[in-house]
């Protein structure tokens, strides 16, 4: 009995050794010290807090509705349906889910049917020896036993890739929403600035008419007329430059909503969009809200699982096989009961020498894990930097807006006084032009500061990961009144 078992034990020795070492095929643990930690609070925070849902529990909140602008709402909805970047991300997600299904299928039994004809020699050939044909038809069965976790780790990695693609789809939606909001708000800011400049053009034309009458009456020199004409032409040039910039922004908005620029048009409108106040919350919520961070985390975990796949290549592949059907040397005898055949077996495959291929595969998988870990850390650091950028921008823009408002008030008063004094002949026409030029510059800068506040607000929503509903965590600052364009 011992002699009979000895060959069996010898044959199974490599398998038993592999089973003892199965633990070596598990993916390496990620050192928590290598992962970035969230700050306790934002440096630029102002005490507004919000409790965020984990990214898996979020819905795509319509955060843009906090701006209370129906036109913006319609543009974002159109972009979500037709934007090409979102459709590409959705296709990538469908592709990754198909790859996951294909990977999972390798863990299931494989069944197929087939038929073949071979010509061969040997005892199975007709009497007299020589070459003969053999016909076979039947079903085949195989099932790889995942004793060492190679297939399960590969399936886990594919599942994590699919989760990462889903996060990238959410990120694509957020990016498109933010880009549409920024482009639309920039368009409305340009509309307000264009109206201001064209109003100034009208004022310069009135001044030119008055100056020409005084020149014809001999009260002033031709130099004064030339100065007013210069200011009028320069301001008209600024108005045309703003028209060009608006056309470019409108064309970019057309691409975002999936329209051809030639077929898209958005008429000028009043800039009375509300400016919401965004609560930054605690920094740790950024790690759960931002879809790009979630995608980077899934990529890191997938790379970790692939290390286990590479390590499992050192262990044997074991599969159960089976077949059943018919075999005969004559076609007419093939499907008779006497021609039936079947077989079952087990296959074990273990490469002995591969020129270092498996070792290189493990080192490559470890390098991919290191790169994914570094990418995740960088993504987290960039996320915190984005939030701090927008928070500091909003704080400083609020102060700048107050200072600029005082400048506009003073410049407007100076223009009124200079106009009265000029009409009464107390000051030169050059002083009036300087006053109007200063007022126009300060009013335009006030509009640009206000526009920057809207852009920074959208940027903060994007930096925090979006996902809010209008009444969830957003403190509305009320409908913002359009900046004054008159004196």
From TrEMBL:
Q: Which domain of life does the UniProt lineage start with?
A: Bacteria
Q: Which GO terms describe its cellular component?
A: plasma membrane
Coiled coil region boundaries: 430-457
Q: May I ask which residue range the UniProt record assigns to the signal sequence? A: 1-29
Spell out the subcellular localization from the entry.
Answer: Cell membrane
Q: A single Gene Ontology molecular function, please?
A: efflux transmembrane transporter activity
Q: How is it placed in the membrane, per its record?
A: Lipid-anchor
Q: What is its main location?
A: membrane
Q: Where are the transmembrane segments?
A: none
What family is this? Belongs to the outer membrane factor (OMF) (TC 1.B.17) family.
Q: State the protein's name.
A: Outer membrane protein, multidrug efflux system
């Amino acid at each position: 009995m011992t002699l009979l078992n000895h060959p069996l034990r010898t044959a199974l020795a490599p398998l038993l050794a592999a089973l003892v070492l199965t633990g070596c095929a598990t993916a390496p643990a990620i050192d928590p010290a290598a992962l970035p930690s969230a700050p306790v609070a934002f440096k630029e925070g102002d005490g507004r807090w919000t409790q965020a849902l984990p990214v898996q529990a979020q819905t795509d909140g319509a955060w843009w509705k906090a701006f209370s602008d129906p036109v913006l709402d319609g543009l974002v909805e159109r972009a979500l349906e037709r934007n090409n970047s979102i459709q590409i991300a959705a296709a990538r997600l469908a592709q990754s889910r198909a790859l996951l299904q294909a990977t999972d299928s390798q863990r299931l039994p494989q069944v197929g049917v087939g038929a073949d004809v071979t010509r061969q020699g040997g005892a199975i050939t007709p009497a007299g020896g020589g070459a003969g044909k053999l016909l076979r038809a039947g079903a085949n069965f195989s099932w790889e036993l995942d004793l060492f976790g190679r297939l399960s780790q590969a399936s886990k990695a594919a599942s994590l890739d699919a989760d990462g693609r889903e996060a990238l789809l959410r990120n694509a939606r957020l990016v498109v929403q933010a880009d549409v909001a920024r482009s639309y708000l920039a368009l409305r800011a340009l509309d307000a600035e264009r109206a201001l400049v064209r109003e100034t053009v009208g004022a310069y034309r009135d001044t030119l008419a008055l100056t020409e009458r005084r020149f014809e009456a001999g009260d002033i020199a031709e130099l004064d007329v030339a100065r007013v004409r210069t200011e009028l032409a320069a301001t008209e040039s600024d108005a045309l430059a703003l028209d060009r910039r608006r056309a470019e922004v409108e064309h970019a908005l057309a691409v975002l909503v999936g329209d051809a620029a030639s077929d898209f048009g958005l008429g000028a409108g009043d800039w009375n969009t509300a400016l919401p106040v965004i609560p930054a919350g605690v920094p740790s919520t950024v790690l759960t809200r931002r879809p790009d961070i979630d995608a980077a985390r899934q990529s890191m975990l997938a790379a970790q699982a692939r290390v286990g796949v590479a390590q499992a290549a050192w262990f044997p592949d074991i599969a159960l096989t089976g077949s059943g059907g018919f075999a005969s040397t004559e076609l007419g005898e093939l499907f008779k009961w006497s021609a039936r055949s079947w077989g079952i077996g087990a296959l074990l495959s273990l490469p002995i020498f591969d020129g270092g291929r498996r070792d290189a595969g493990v080192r490559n998988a470890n390098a991919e894990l290191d790169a994914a870990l570094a990418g995740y850390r960088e993504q987290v650091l960039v996320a915190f930097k984005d939030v701090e950028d927008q928070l500091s921008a909003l704080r400083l823009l609020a102060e700048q807006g107050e200072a600029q408002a005082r400048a506009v008030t003073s410049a407007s008063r100076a223009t009124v006084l200079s106009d009265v004094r000029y009409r009464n002949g107390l000051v030169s026409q050059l002083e009036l032009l300087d006053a109007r030029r200063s007022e126009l510059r300060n009013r335009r800068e006030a509009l640009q500061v206000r526009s920057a506040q809207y852009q920074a607000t959208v940027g903060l929503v994007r930096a925090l990961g979006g996902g809010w509903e209008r009444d969830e965590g957003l403190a509305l600052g009320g409908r913002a009144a359009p900046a004054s364009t008159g004196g």
